[in-house]
Structures are given as structure tokens and as C-alpha cells.
């Protein structure tokens, strides 16, 4: 994806066990911050035809 | 309109992160409300199609967690 | 590669005569210069139509998918690797195919040649290392090395990796090539430039799916582009749809692509979609030390888990 010019931080992967609620929250926060820093996704969005 | 908030599609494995999310909820922990959770039976169910479909439909980020 | 034709006809007649195969897959002359087409020979009478020259770039492994009969196939280096892929992926059994190895010195790029001469090309003939191109009012002689397909100039497996017999002695392999110079250049671009680069690269695409049809790896009963429930992408020429198609097609070839160049060769508008598949090939090479289709005993890189698999991208 990065090769094609989609920003790296748009896609995240992680391992969280079902007992790790705190890690879950950490990762959610991290991911949210990373995406927030990138700003809105404009590249790969399919524009729907505008209907009057 | 108020300030822009990122929309993140989260693909969570039923047995791992989905459980963690559940536990976080039950424990009344606070976390950012930007994720939209999609439960998948296993991270093995994940496919590149899903990530692309999410982005195509306007998600700002995709998060896969097992 | 000039003497191959006679030997091939000999091999084909022998195999058909002693009934060890029901069909021989090779090439015959196409209706236009530089357009050899695949040829399925089932009777000895048809054997003389078989030929071999530098226009046999189509990947014959493509025609083996899910066949039930015994087949002999002429296989270049890349074809043989795709046959290995097919066997590993259970698309054909090893004892069903009689692989006739063809050491290959590269196939010529018809688009390149058409761009280098003026007027319609009427005839193309070749010697071992030159190509003569005849148009209505001129005749041009090229060194074969200057008109090779790009993937052939970068090829490091010219000799078949598996074979039951060989048409000729192995040719010398190319070594010390910088195979991924162009990929590296793209990798070094800024994110925005990359986006623009592929926007320009893919903009002529007419979604004819010739690349998919020519590709020996693309044998899904229903391709994701044809699925409508759910519909993964639109059918039109919307740039995002085009991009999704090329992106996902490349992904399906991850760890399987042998860079045979069939996709680029088949493309009517000349898109170099190999930039995408080769990026994945490069990653497989770097991260898992894996090259597709080299051996029957090894499972593909994306098929196995090892504790030392790279995982730094996982939080």
C-alpha cells in the first residue's frame, strides 16, 4: 500500500489478547492519534455520483 | 461543523481484541470513540479486500487486530 | 534458439506416437508478425505447425489449469516455474505433465520494436542474436539484446527448473543484475509522488482484464472483479476502481509471481503493471528469502509460519 502512495499510518496491525483491556486502550489511542495526524483520507475514496 | 474526527474501521478478532474491547467496556475504561468495530471470527478471515473496501468507502484508517 | 523448432517437432511426434501424452502444448505462427499463438497439438499430422522463436512470450502454464489428461508442454524458465506453482497449488499433478524444457535467451518486445521502426511491420526474422524487421519501405537490423522484454533482460532463471527432457543444452544464466532498480526508485519517492506516479501509470487502463487472463496465477473460478455480492469494486473506468483492481490483482500474486511478463505483454495499452508484482516479489525475497516456483518440496512463503518471520509492523 505504501508503495502505491497510501500513507503508511492508514493501516495498523496489532496483537491484543482478550485479557489485555489496557493494552487495547493504548492501541486504540495510538491508532487514533496516528490517523488524526494524517488528516482525512482523500486518496482512495470512491466518489459517489452526485445525484441532484 | 465541529472539528474533524478520524473515522477508523477496526477489524477485531472475536477471540482476542474483541474480547479485550469487551473487557475494556465492562471495566468502564475510557478510550477514543473514533473506531467502528467489525467483528471477524479470526484474524485469518481478514482479506486485503476488506481494508481496501473500508478505505474506498471513506474510512480514514483501518486497524486490524488479532 | 533457432534450431529448436525441428527438435521440438521431433519430440512432439515421438510423444504422440507412443501415446505417452494426449496433447502437446506449444506455439504456432500467428497471423501477424511477432504474434505467435499457443497451439494444442493432439495428432501427429498437426505437429508441423509447431514452431519456436523469440516471440513465444505467452506463458503456457496458463493452459494447464485443472486439466485432466496427460499433457506435454514446452516450458521456458518462467513457464517451468509457473508449472511448479501449479503443482504446488494442486492445479495439475506432476505425473500428468511431461515437461519439455526450453532454455531461453529472452523474448522480444513487440511494442518496443513497433516504436523503433516507422510504418507497419510486415515481416520479422531472426538469427541467434539479431532481429531483422521489414516494413514496406525499409529494413532494420536490431541486436536482440536491445529489443528484449524488460522482464527477460532481468531474468535470472532462463533454464527450466524442472523438466523431463530438454530441447537443448542449458544456456548461460545472467548474473549480477540489479533486478529492482526501478522499484527502488519508486520506493524512495514521497507518498504524494507515488500516488501520482501510479495515477499516471494506470490512467490508460481500459479494464479489459487481458493481464488477468494471460496470467497463469489468475485461475480463481470467480475473480473478485466479477463478484457482485458483495461488489468489491465498480466495473467502470473510475480511477479508484482501476487502482483497486491492479492493487488487488498484484496482491493475489504475492509470493507466486515469477515475473514471466505475460501480463505486460498482453496489455493492449502497454501498462507496466509488473511494477506492482515485482515490488511484492522483492519483498518476499528480502523478508522471507523466497523466490516463487523454484522447488516442489518447499511450501510458499505466505503458506508457512516461522518464528523469525518479520513482524515489526505489528504493535
UniProtKB/TrEMBL annotation, chain B:
Q: Where is the F420-non-reducing hydrogenase iron-sulfur subunit D domain?
A: 8-66
Keywords tagged on the record: Iron, Iron-sulfur, Metal-binding, Oxidoreductase
GO MF assignments: iron-sulfur cluster binding; metal ion binding; oxidoreductase activity
Please name the Pfam families in this protein's record: FlpD
Is Oxidoreductase there in the keyword field?
yes
Q: What is this protein called?
A: F420-non-reducing hydrogenase iron-sulfur subunit D domain-containing protein
Organism field = Desulfosarcina alkanivorans
Taxonomy of origin reads:
Bacteria, Pseudomonadati, Thermodesulfobacteriota, Desulfobacteria, Desulfobacterales
